[in-house]
Amino acid sequence: MMSRYFRYGLLCLVILAGLLLAWGMVQAAPGYQAVPPATPTHLPDQPASYSPEVSTIDSPAPTCELPQPGTGDCYLTWSYLYADADPNYMITMTVSIDDQPRARYHGFFQTYMYIPTEMLAFRVSCGSSGSGGLQDFGRSHSYTLRARDSAGSKTANYGTVICPADTLHMCLPMVWK
Amino acid sequence: MRKLLIPFGSALLLLLVTFSALQVARGQVPLNSEVVLNSETQDGNIRQVSAPSGVSPDQPEISFIDSPTVACVQPDSAKNECFLNWYYLSVDANPSYIITMTVNLIDFGYVARYHGFFQTSIYVPHSMNPQGYKVACGTLGEGGDPMWGKAYSYIIRARASDGLKSANYGSAYCPPYTP
């Protein structure tokens, strides 16, 4: 039969062993890895080490074309659009026609932005002959191209195109567009 | 009192053992979790390369996904129809093979899945989806920007045969529809 003190001592030893075991397990447990959120939260803009201005927007051959006569629908496009912000990042390039935003192109870790003609096609009204001030041609449409880089520099191109004249023809009733 | 000490002590020991077991369980990394190997952020955009837990390559063999110029275009101002598209999508996992690349528009779910076929890189030009993904333009300010319409968040993911993954997170604002 164990003595009372022996039992107390054994009990204390067991409790101490349990405490040491718990402490050791906590120390050995690896950290929990957090899963990144599926949707990124807003982050501050990347600061530029130095900030030369973004280049002018290269926007050759603004064109108004009439793919299907008799529809009254013309399409405004360019050969391409290009802007360079190196070493800064391109943030956005936007296209507005007749003061209405029609496209926004977003940069993604890129120092320049190139937009091919296939991604630039905007339907506009052709207009009747002379409506833009030129005989044998239709309406004129103004456009604005803007680009912005991560250093906050901005550039813009302003211009006007004149479209071929065309109106929508319907059998009944006659609707001139 | 004496008779209570042993059972009390046993109960305390059992409690401690249970506590330590819970700590071990909490600290263990789940089987399907990933470790981010490389991450970059810029103006709300994020791109990451990750690997399954337990894999720690000296150098990730899958590149960041190249996804320049995400566009939202409104071809016809008379319609509440905008089209999302990328200039191109590209990722390289050489010498491993690309298994898949997916495009997920958060509002709609997966909209594209590109499968690798014995290829170490994948390149998807905009012409493979020339029109883009049709979405609603939204009204002025609907996406939080007072000058633009709705905003759409997207995730592009790629996976290689060695288990490495790459992901791009971003968002695009569309022109507003004004009837």
Question: Can you summarize this structure?
Answer:
Chain A has 177 residues and is of the alpha+beta class. Chain A has one helix at residues 4-28, and strands spanning 63-65, 73-77, 80-84, 90-97, 100-106, 112-116, 122-125, 137-149, 154-164. Chain A contains one helix and nine strands; from the N terminus they run αβββββββββ.
Task: Identify the notable features of this structure and list them briefly.
heterodimer, A: 177 residues, alpha+beta, 4-stranded antiparallel β-sheet, 3-stranded antiparallel β-sheet, 1 helix, 9 strands, 14% helix, elongated, B: 179 residues, mainly beta, 6-stranded antiparallel β-sheet, 11 strands, 15% helix, 41% strand
- Count of DSSP E strands of chain A? 9
User: What structural category arises from helix and sheet content of chain B?
Assistant: mainly beta
Q: Kindly state the percentage of residues in helix of chain A.
A: 10-25%
Q: How many DSSP helices of chain B?
A: 1
What is the H/E string of chain B? HEEEEEEEEEEE
The percent range for strand residues of chain A is 25-35%
Number of helices of chain A: 1
